[in-house]
Every structure is written in structure tokens, then in C-alpha cells.
Amino acid sequence: MESHKKEIIKATVPALEQHGTTITKVFYQTMFEKHPELLDMFNQTNQKVGDQPKALAFTVLQAARHIDDLEAIVPAVIGIAHKHRALNVKPEHYPIVGENLLVGIKEVLGDAATPEIMDAWEEYYGEIAQVFIDVENGMYQTADWDGFVPFEVVKKDHLSDDIVRYTVKNDTVEYDLRAGQYITVKVDPEDYPNEALRHYSICSINTDEGLQFAVKKEGSGEKSGVVSHYMHDDVKVGDTLELSAPAGDFLLNHEEDKFLFIAGGVGATPVMAMIEEAIAADKDSKFIYSVQNEGMHPFKDEMKAFGEEIDVKIKYSDTEGYLTHEDFEGMEDRSVYICGSMHFMNAMIKVLTEVGFEEENIHFEPFGPKMSVIGE
Ligand code: HEM
């Protein structure tokens, strides 16, 4: 890209970031009007809550900081690209997103949106899109299978008041699971206007009985997550679920030797598989788990079994309080893997850095979109 065009992009980013929410609103509105088929792909609950809508547009704006060296954004692109691959986002979708994002940008810039500025944005979007497309092409080539394939539900275990584990089977595909990965389920609930895609973490690397993942029932009443309620209430043993191949980059680094696993609530799901993998690799590991109370506590038997191999500490927040500094003292030399809500993770990262853990040794995976994936 010519340098004067880069200057145009850089000069317009602050104003656009200030009105990012407007860009996002206009972008989604126009895109779904023109391409209602894309409603199947996007999580309509996240749309309402406003997390993912912000994530996509803000990522494009934030990436502009690296406009002089777009290769630098590749590491940050990888996590998003895993999600895109799992959702079956294809190269032909990029121009659609680009065209409608530009409508949003034009609206925010108003009279300032000269043809020169809009040209520069169009070209720049094309460059970012190409980075994503290239990374995703590589992922499509190595995925365990193409698109969505049917799996039979062979087991459904109620693990706690609001978490169910599904075991699903398809003997025609082969897969090699890594702890920390997720699968993506495509369902079509009757009382939902579109098809829906949801990512659910794999909770075991053991596939003797099939592939296992866990689903939390989200919300209640008017605020119910339609899809998770459908999964809990309507999907039964013997039913078929469409799954795309395992994805994700929240994986154990086997070059590290001493682990501390921390999970909150349903965040235990990927961590269970990670502990299994760490124990199998004979790694020195500890596990600290925070959950509201006994009723909400999933994987009780599995955690008990882990307790025979490694240190396991379970804290019920209703009666024993939240995890705090003293829970982590003396463990500062360990590599940490955290999973839980965004709020839980932010709290943990703060406590751990105050205790003296190095930020670079703290790996985390939020449940829900990562908001500022590409930043400074
Ligand atoms: C998710 C960025 C293009 C569909 C996301 C997320 C980001 C993002 C940051 C959130 C990731 C997370 O949850 O951690 C981008 C950027 C793009 C782009 C920068 C262009 C350069 C596309 C295209 C499509 C698409 C072309 C398909 C039409 C989605 C969907 C999700 C997603 C469906 C998941 C959101 C949900 O579940 O509602 N993207 N994206 N994205 N993206 Fe993209």
C-alpha cells in the first residue's frame, strides 16, 4: 500500500474508534439486510449483548496500528482464524464483510468521507482480509474433517445443576484431540429464527466412548440462552448433532514443566482435558477450582480422581469466598492456565501478578469473545 494511503488510514482511525459502536451497528444492520443467510453464522445472543459486534469492527480498527507491518498481526489473527475455520467462514465471505464495514465507516465519517479516504480503507481492508484468508486456508487444509458432519449422541450426563456433558460418535471420521480445543455445533432449534452455531470445549482427550464436550445452561426466563436450553432440554441420546472439526489455540505448551491450572465455574471444561494431558505427560501440576457451591460443581468424580495424582483445591465461593492471593503463594514458578468468565480471568490475572507471577507465564481463555485481541 502506498505510504500516503497508510497516512490516511492512520489519520482517520482515532475518529473511527471513537464512533466504533456506530460503525458496528450500521455494518451489521446493512450486512444482515442484504445477506440474511449470514444470520445463521453469527451468534444472535452475542449480537444483542454487543460483545462480538464490537470485536470484529474494533479488530479491523486496532489492526490499523500495525499497518506498516501487517505480518505482525498474524499471531493475534490465529485465535480468531480458528473460530472462523470452525464456523466455516470462507474467502468469499470477506468481500461481504468489507463492503458493509465500509458503509459503516462512511456513515461515521460523514462529509469527511472523500473518495480518496474510502479508497484507502477499501484497499486496507483487502490487505487485512488477505492475512486472515491465508491463515485460514492453512487451517482448512489440516482440519480433521471438512465442514459439518453428523455425530450421534451416545451419552448425556448431568454433571451439575446447569452443566451437561455430551458424548457423541461418528466412526467415519478420525481425529486427534488436543486438550483445550473446542468443537462447534450447528443446531436448528424450533423457537429460534435461524440455524445456530456454538463453540463448546472438549472436556476429555479420552475418546474411547466418543468425543466429549460440556454445555452450560445459560440464563433463565427472558434472558435464557435459547441454544443452550435447546441442548439441555431437547437434544437426547440417539439424536444427531452436526459438528465441525476441533479447533483452538488454547493448548498446553509441553516445553513447560510445572503447571498451575485455575478454573472458575464452567471454565473447568477445557481445563479437565488439560489436566488429563498434563498427568499423562507426567508433568508436575496443581489445580485450583472456584465454583459457587456443591450443586453447581461439575466433574466431581473426575476431580476426585485427579486428586490422587496431583494437588487439587476446590473452593466454594458461597461459603469460602473467592480465590485470593494466599491461594497462590509459593507457586510463582509455575506456568498458569486459566479458564472462566472474562470477569473471573481479569480478577485472577490481577491477583497472580500481585503475588509475583510473570505475565508471560499466564495463559488464559475466556468463555465468550476475546474483546481486544489485536492490541499494542
Ligand atoms: C468472530 C474479526 C471477518 C464471521 C470474530 C471475532 C473477531 C473477528 C475479533 C471474535 C473472536 C472471538 O470470539 O474471540 C474479524 C475480522 C475480519 C473478520 C478482523 C475481517 C478482516 C469475518 C468474515 C466472517 C466472519 C468474513 C463471515 C461472514 C465471524 C463470526 C464470528 C466471528 C460468525 C463469531 C461471532 C459469533 O459467534 O457471533 N471475527 N472477522 N468474520 N467472525 Fe470474524
Describe the structure in your own words.
The longest helix is centred in the middle third of the chain and has 28 residues, at about 115-140. The chain has about 375 residues and is of the alpha/beta class. It has helices at about 5-20, 20-35, 45-50, 50-65, 75-85, 95-110, 115-140, 225-235, 270-280, 300-305, 315-320, 325-330, 340-355; strands at about 150-160, 165-170, 180-185, 195-200, 210-215, 240-245, 260-265, 285-290, 310-315, 335-340, 360-365. A six-stranded antiparallel beta sheet has the order 4-3-6-1-2-5. A five-stranded parallel beta sheet has the order 9-8-7-10-11, with helices on both faces. It is built from 13 helices and eleven strands. It binds protoporphyrin IX containing FE. Protoporphyrin IX containing FE binds near residues 42, 84, 128 and 370.
Q: What does the main sheet amount to?
A: 6 strands, antiparallel
- Please write the string of helix (H) and strand (E) elements: HHHHHHHEEEEEHEEHEHEHHEHE
Query: Can you list the strand order of the major beta sheet?
Result: 4-3-6-1-2-5
Unreliable stretches covering 5 or more consecutive residues? 369-376
Write out the distinct hetero groups bound to the structure.
protoporphyrin IX containing FE
Number of H/I helices: 13
By helix and strand content, what is the structural category? Answer: alpha/beta
Task: State the total count of DSSP E strands.
Answer: 11
Portion in helices: 40-55%
Tell me the quaternary state: single chain
Give the overall average pLDDT.
Answer: 91
